[in-house]
Design a protein that fits this description.
This protein is α/β, with parallel strands linked by helices. It has 21 helices and 30 strands. The longest helix has 17 residues, at 116-132. The chain binds 5'-O-[(S)-ethoxy(hydroxy)phosphoryl]adenosine.
Length: 654
C-alpha cells in the first residue's frame, strides 16, 4: 500500500459541540471520560479488570485478567464463571421485571411488547426445549429467522444452556446457509415458515429444506410459525416452535460457563472465497457490548433504543440482542422493509414508540434522504435525543441531513467504527463529551489502543497521512479465533506486522485534532449497503456457472449503497454479444441463488480475457479504474495482454 494513495482528500472543517442539555445529563460526562482514559492509560489490564468486576455478574469471580501466553490467541478473565443470558435478563427481574425489554413492530399488524419477565420466561422455555432435544454446552445451533422476538429468544436460549449460536441472515441463500451449517458442525437449526419483507414472504423454510437436502450435521429443525403459510414439515426432523415450547417449564437453571466459552460464531466475508466463522467469547464479548452501549449511546432506563440492524449481522448481536438488554434498556424490533408500505415507515415507528436513540446505517440514511425532507417532516420526531451511524463511512452530506432533518439540530450523532471481529464499537464519539465532525468516527474509546501505521508498522504521525488501522493492545471483546481455522486467524489479522498489532483491514488517517477518518478496506472486501462481501465469494459463485470461465469482481462507488458490485466475466467459448440482457439476468439470478440477493452484481461486463500481469495476477486496480470510468494512470506495461484494456473499456453491458 503506498502512502500517496492514502493521502486524505477530505477537508471537513465543521465542528459540532455536544448540546449543553445533552452534556449535562450524559454518562460519562467529560470528567468521567477523562478518568476512564487516564485509568486505561495507566494500567490497561487493570482497567479492564475493574470494569469487568463492576459491569458483569460473576458466578465465580476471575483471578487472572489477561492470559497472553498463547498470543495473539488472547484469553480474558479465563477462570471466571458466568452466564450471558443471566447477565441480560435474570439480573434485571427484581428492579425492571415489568418494564418492556422488546417492543416488536411487525411489518403489518399491531405491535406487541415483551416485559423483561415475559422475555425471561420465553427464554427459559426455549432453553428447556433445546435441552429436551439433547442440545447442551458447546453444541452449535444455527438460527435462520426473520427479525422477530423469537430470534432473540433463540439466541438467549442458546446462551442460557451454553450452546453456541450462529445466526445466518435470513437474506442469505440456501447454499450459503448450508455452507455455514457444515462449517459450524451444527446439530440443530432454528428457522421459521417465513418472514415478511416489503409486502412479500421470505421463504425461509423452503430455503432451509434446500440447504438440508443433502447430508449435513443437522439432526433436528425447530420451525417458528410466523407467516402462517403452508410449509411441509419433515416427520422426525421438523418440530413446531409453539408445540415444543408449550410443554416446557417457565424456569431453567443456567449453565455456568467459563469466561472464554464461545458465545457465538458469526460468519463474515474475507478476501478468499470461504466465509470466516468469527468466534466470540462469553465474558469479554458481553463486557464490550455492555460498556460500549453505555459509553456511546448513553443508554438510560427511560430510553427507547432502536438499532435497525438484523440479528444476522454483528450490529444486531451487540446492539440489539446483548448490549441494550445487559443495560436493562427497551429495544424496538421491526421485522419489515424500511419503505413499506411507504417511505415514512421508519419515522412513523420512531413517532409511535417514542424512540429516543436511533442507530442505523449510512445506506439507509441515503436511501431515505432521496424521498425528500417532506416525508420525515410529517412525523413527530421530538422523542429522539441521539442518532448513530455504522457500517461504512458516512458522507458529510448524509451526516448533515441526518443531523438537521431527523435530529432537528438537537441530537448528537455518533459515527461508530467497529467490525464483526471487534465485537463492540472501538472508535466513536462519546456523545456528551466529543465535538463531532461530519464523516469522522472521532476517537478511540477508553481501553482501546487504536493507531494508524505505515507499511513498516511505524506510527503515522503526520496529520492527514493515511495508513493501516491497527489496535496495539488486546481488548476483551476481540474475536478469539476463526472457527476451525486458527491459521487463517493468525494470517488475516496478525501476520502483516508479526503479531504486534491487530490489523483491521481498513485504511484510515488522523487529522490535526487526532480524529480518525476511515477511508475504506485495504483487502478485497466490498462494503455494499453496509454489508461485507468478499469479491472472491462472488467470483467463485460466477465461475460455478456452467458458461463462465473466469470472473473478476470489483467495487464501484454507488450513491446509495456505498459500493456497487461490478463483475467482469469471461465465458467459455465465444464472448456473448448483441442482446446479452437475458444472460446477464441469468447470471445475476445465479449469484443470488448461490449467495443471496445482496451479492448480485449490479453490472456485468463480458470480456475475452482479464487483464493479467505476466505472473498471472489479475490487475484489480486496473479493473477498478475501468469500472469507475476513470482515466488509466497506472503502469500497464507489465500487462500480458495490453489489447484487452480497450475491450474492457467498452460500453457497459448492463
Ligand atoms: C466498515 C459492522 C467507516 C469498515 C459493524 C469495517 C465503517 C467494516 C464504519 C466492518 C464506520 C464499519 N465508518 N467504515 N463508522 N463501521 N465500517 O464486520 O470497513 O459488518 O472494517 O461490522 O465496515 O463490517 P462488519
Amino acid at each position: 500500500m503506498s502512502q500517496n494513495n492514502l493521502e486524505s482528500s477530505l477537508h471537513e472543517a465543521r465542528l459540532f459541540a455536544p448540546p449543553p442539555g445533552f452534556a449535562a445529563q450524559a454518562v460519562p460526562n467529560s470528567a468521567q471520560l477523562a478518568a476512564l482514559h487516564a485509568a486505561a492509560a495507566a494500567d490497561h489490564v487493570g482497567f479492564w479488570a475493574d470494569q469487568a468486576r463492576v459491569a458483569l455478574h460473576w458466578q465465580r469471580p476471575f483471578t487472572q485478567t489477561l492470559d497472553d501466553s498463547a498470543a495473539p490467541n488472547y484469553r480474558w478473565f479465563a477462570d471466571g464463571l458466568l452466564n450471558v443470558s443471566v447477565n441480560c435478563l435474570d439480573v434485571h427481574l427484581a428492579a425492571h421485571g415489568e418494564r418492556p425489554a422488546i417492543v416488536f413492530e411487525p411489518e403489518s399488524g399491531e405491535p406487541r411488547a415483551l416485559s423483561y419477565r415475559q422475555l425471561h420466561t420465553q427464554v427459559c422455555r426455549a432453553a428447556n426445549a433445546l435441552r429436551s432435544l439433547g442440545i447442551g454446552r458447546g453444541d452449535r445451533v444455527v438460527i435462520y429467522m426473520p427479525l422477530v422476538p423469537e430470534a432473540i429468544i433463540a439466541m438467549h436460549a442458546c446462551a442460557r444452556i451454553g450452546a453456541i449460536h450462529s445466526v445466518v441472515f435470513g437474506g442469505f441463500s440456501a447454499l450459503s446457509l448450508r455452507d455455514r451449517i457444515i462449517d459450524a458442525g451444527a446439530r440443530l437449526l432454528i428457522t421459521a415458515d417465513g418472514g415478511h419483507r416489503g409486502g412479500h414472504i421470505v421463504e425461509l423454510k423452503a430455503a432451509a429444506d434446500k440447504a438440508l437436502a443433502e447430508h449435513t450435521p443437522i439432526e433436528q429443525v425447530i420451525v417458528l410459525r410466523q407467516t402462517g403459510h403452508d410449509v411441509p414439515m419433515q416427520a422426525g426432523r421438523d418440530l413446531w416452535w409453539h408445540e415444543l415450547l408449550a410443554a416446557q417449564p417457565d424456569s431453567c437453571p443456567p449453565e455456568w460457563v467459563d469466561a472464554e466459552h464461545p458465545l457465538f460464531l458469526l460468519y463474515t466475508s474475507g478476501s478468499t472465497g470461504k466465509p470466516k466463522g468469527i468466534q466470540h467469547s462469553s465474558a469479554g464479548y458481553l463486557l464490550g457490548a455492555k460498556l460500549s452501549t453505555q459509553w456511546v449511546f448513553d443508554l438510560k432506563p427511560a430510553d427507547v433504543f432502536w438499532c435497525t440492524a438484523d440479528v444476522g449481522w454483528i450490529t444486531g448481536h451487540s446492539y440489539v440482542a446483548y448490549g441494550p438488554l445487559a443495560n436493562a434498556g427497551t429495544i424496538v424490533l421491526y421485522e419489515g422493509g424500511p419503505t413499506y408500505p411507504d417511505a415514512g415507515r421508519f419515522w412513523r415507528i420512531i413517532e409511535r414508540h417514542r424512540v429516543s436513540i436511533f442507530y442505523t446505517a449510512p445506506t439507509a440514511i441515503r436511501a431515505l434522504m432521496k424521498f425528500g425532507d417532506d416525508v420525515p417532516k410529517q412525523y413527530d420526531l421530538s422523542s429522539l435525543r441521539l442518532l448513530g451511524s455504522v457500517g461504512e463511512p458516512i458522507n458529510p452530506e448524509a451526516w448533515m441531513w441526518y443531523r438537521s432533518v431527523i435530529g432537528g439540530d438537537r441530537c448528537p450523532i455518533v459515527d461508530t467504527w467497529w467490525q464483526t471481529e471487534t465485537g463492540a464499537i472501538l472508535i466513536s464519539p462519546v456523545p456528551g463529551v466529543t465535538a463531532t465532525k461530519p464523516g469522522s468516527c472521532t476517537q478511540p474509546l477508553p481501553g482501546i489502543a487504536a493507531d494508524i501505521v505505515d507499511d513498516d508498522g511505524n506510527a503515522v504521525t503526520r496529520a492527514d497521512a493515511g495508513g493501516y488501522l491497527v489496535v496495539r493492545k488486546p481488548w476483551p471483546s476481540m474475536l478469539r479465533t476463526i472457527w476451525n481455522d486458527n491459521e487463517r486467524y493468525l494470517e488475516t489479522y496478525w501476520a502483516r506486522f508479526q503479531n504486534r498489532y491487530y490489523v483491521a483491514g481498513d485504511s484510515a488517517h488522523r487529522d490535526a485534532d487526532g480524529y480518525y477518518w476511515i477511508m475504506g478496506r485495504i483487502d478485497d472486501v466490498l462494503n455494499v449497503a453496509g454489508h461485507r462481501l468478499g469479491t472472491m465469494e462472488i467470483e467463485s459463485a460466477l465461475v460455478a456457472h456452467p458458461r463462465v470461465a473466469e470472473a473478476a469482481v470489483v467495487g464501484k462507488p454507488h450513491e446509495i449503497k456505498g459500493e456497487a458490485v461490478f463483475a467482469y466475466v469471461v465465458c467459455l467459448g465465444e464472448r456473448p454479444e448483441g442482446d446479452v440482457q437475458a444472460f446477464i439476468d441469468e447470471l445475476r439470478h445465479w449469484v443470488g441463488e448461490q449467495l443471496g440477493a445482496i451479492a448480485k452484481p449490479d453490472e456485468i461486463r463480458f470480456a475475452d480475457n482479464l487483464p493479467k500481469t505476466r505472473s498471472g495476477k489479475i490487475m484489480r486496480r486496473l479493473l477498478r479504474t475501468i469500472a469507475r470510468g476513470e482515466d488509466i494512470t497506472q503502469d500497464i506495461s507489465t500487462l500480458e495482454n495490453p489489447a484487452i484494456v480497450e475491450q474492457l473499456r467498452g460500453k457497459s453491458s448492463s
